[in-house]
Amino acid sequence: MANSTIIQPNKGHYNIAEELPSWEDFSWKDIETNFSWSQTGKVNMAYECVDRHVEAGFGEKTALHYIGEQEEYKLTYRDLKEKSDLWATVLKKRGVKKGDFVFVFLPKHPDCHIAMLAAIKLGAVVGPLFEAFMEDAVKERIQDCGGTFLIASPELVKRVQRDQLPSLTTVFITAEPEQCTGDEISLFEEARNVETEENIIEWVDLDHGLNIHYTSGSTGKPKGIIHAHRAMIQQYITGRWVLDLKEGDIYWCTAHPGWVTGTVYGVFAPLLNRTTTVIHGGRFGAEEWYDILERTGVTVWYSAPTAFRMLMAKGDKLISNYDLSKIRHILSVGEPLNPEIVRWGIETLSNRIHDTWWMTETGAQLIVNLPSEAIKPGSMGKPFPGIEAAILGEDGEILEAGAVGQLALKANWPSLMREVWKDPAKYSTYFPFDGWYLSGDLATIDETGYVFFQGRSDDMINSSGERIGPFEVESKLIEHPAVAEVGVIGKPDAVRGEIVKAFIVLNKEYQESKELLEELRLFVRSGLAAHAAPREIEFLEELPKTPISGKVLRRELKAREAKKSSDLLVNK
Ligand code: 6R9
């Protein structure tokens, strides 16, 4: 809790704040009444995302605004309904039925939305695959749940090893027949040759499987996390109250649906709230991103610390070339949001950046900075209404304010995962203490209920008996003008148990030098604490990161260190 600054909201920015109930008055049951199924009990996420809005007279509203490298176009809610109905008809004709796994391997593109919605309309469980996955990552996932159907682009399908995936019987390609090979089916051609089936929607139970996302956690092979249609309750209301989405907003979530953020807050939540979503095909580029924000008039923007840091590293002069005045609400997820980024947001974008915390397993945001509340930079915010958080000690006891322990959430909430695919034993490891979901993250909660992230439990550093969270050291270092990116780990040390080691990527106008190294060490020593100052600093060209969400891979940095020291031993 190094930083005690409090940043008050600019109330005029936000819309929904006034309708927020007090914590005591909140009930998930009340939220359900926004949906017609609260009477029927039968549901379909795709209907709630799309068809419902067309029936209510909003068919002409823009649902998707696509900006690709070659083309740019918009689709209305009616377009999205017609296209997803049509593709659902094709899928059904080719055998897709309720409960089947349908993988979607497409770049960020409206086709990805349409494919996902079409599969969901049939009651299939959709598995969006991240566009940068290579052969093994794709194989592992499809194999694990015996996926039978795949919808892919002609480029990405090349990374699918059909000969090693016997379960995968049917592959649809989002292209014309000339671009298909072997038994691949041209989705475009088939779609031209069918009549859209009326009432194509398969009504399912609230607990019926909706999507599967694989998450690696800290060890072991990826686990298939399955969510149910019920998750929409929380995905809808967090979209409304946290993203503050309303009529007239232009919303951009920069994540690909292969990351849970891109599915929940890139596809479902904005459609559930009848918003216009911007889709940008292509990779990160500061100029492109600023251009998109300006040109499409984005009002609400959801991204990640790694992207904000890359924009910061490009300098503030670049921003001044763009008119970004339409942006009224910015949010972040996936990694600790350094206070420096929050300051940058206020100075250069005239907006607070609102941190949100959740996990693949939790299915929706749980710890948030509501737009109407004060922000404490360095804190992830407070539990969303209806969510109870606590810091637990080793034996599951609730720790007092300020103590470091495991961040735990009182189960149950609507979007909590339904199962870990074929691994009930793994599922129960999340609930070692009665009624609590254990996150694997270490955190503290202050007297006012704000939650401060410390690190994954396996990232904590213990140096001469002092416990040091890598996040605080990283956040201090990032304040230094020379530092663009940083990852901090505990390096095994014979005397101290561990020492703090920082891996730093320098901003391009800075050169590696002994003086700079000393200056950085002093910067932490004087700004944070002597024991937190890195005893070792190594400069790198880039940091290892998770491909999907850009999280700094501290465990990879650790593994490199371990390997280095064992090499030393061997070479002695
Ligand atoms: C949505 C998502 C989950 C892990 C989580 C934590 C880290 C997420 C964070 C954050 C600090 C935040 N994480 N949000 N750490 N501050 N606001 O990221 O899901 O990819 O499954 O990762 O990410 O360590 O446990 P997922």
TrEMBL record:
Keywords: Acetylation, ATP-binding, Ligase, Nucleotide-binding. GO terms for molecular function: acetate-CoA ligase activity. PROSITE patterns: AMP_BINDING. Gene3D superfamilies: 3.30.300.30, N-terminal domain of ligase-like. It is an enzyme of class 6 (ligase). Transmembrane segments: none annotated. The keyword Nucleotide-binding applies. This is acetate--CoA ligase. It comes from Planococcus shenhongbingii.
